Amino acid sequence: MGVLIEHYVPTLASALWLTLRITGISFAGALAAGTILAVFRISPIPPLRAVGSVYVEIFRNVPLVALVVLVVYGLPDIGFNPGFLPGVILATTAVGTAFACETLRTGINTVGAGQVEAARAIGLSFLGIMRHLVVPQAARSVVGPLVTLFIGILLSSSMAAVVGQPDLTYTASLINSKEALGLVTFGVVAVIYAVISLLAAGIGSRVEARVQVLR
After folding, report:
1. What is the count of structural domains for the chain?
2. What confidence tens digit (pLDDT) does each residue in 164-190 have?
């Protein structure tokens, strides 16, 4: 532990910052794209519903590690090279979007049909109903599952290590290869992941208590 504290605290701090960046950007992207896709899934336009369904079925069932390798090493073969870190974020966001979509769709189903009919009666369009009535209520109904999604993306960010990006997991492996401190290093990293997850769960519980929809 002494060697870790004396020589590797800045390295671990940098790795933690990269892990948080991957998680934050991927979660925000997944939430934004997942919202659009959830609206597609309940759209009255069949092609949009088909696009949403196909996307979810594909990306919900593809192993993230395979997608990371495909994006980082496969896409350059067809002329699109996102780079290592953007490629990891792109793959993580793509998978997170599928789960965010289904989470929000579950929330949408909790909105009463009577409210939607009332909104139609006062002249709101489909998009207006989604924007002003359905999506805000749906999001408030699924705060807990969205926090679970955030934690899932946090843990999935370790896939960055597969393509050599110095996140927490990769850095722990690197330190272990130099210092043979496997148990200590990976133990510290595991604690860091657990602390972030518990913090997110705690914040999520507070937010959920404040915004929950009383029925």
Report:
1. 1
2. 899 999 999 998 888 877 788 889 999
The residue to which tokens 């130099």 are assigned: 178
Residue 6 belongs to what domain range?
1-214
What would the mean pLDDT of 102-106 be, rounded to a whole number? Answer: 92
68 contacts 87 by C-beta, under 8 angstroms: yes
Residue 180: CB atoms within 10 A of its CB come to: 11
Task: Give the mean pLDDT of the chain.
Answer: 90
Q: Which of 132, 146, 143 is nearest to 211 (CA)?
A: 143
Q: How far apart are CA 59 and CA 54, in angstroms?
A: 9
CATH of the domain at 3: 1.10.3720.10
- Interacting residues of 193 by C-beta distance below 8 A, sequence separation 6+: 154, 155, 168
How far apart CA 193 and CA 197 sit, in angstroms, is 6
Which among 213, 212, 196, 210 is positioned nearest to 27, based on CA atoms? 196
Quickly count: other Cβ atoms within 10 Å of residue 191's Cβ: 10
DSSP, res 166? -
| Amino acid symbol at 56 | V
Distance, in Å, from the CA atom of 78 to the CA atom of 84, rounded to the nearest integer, reads 16
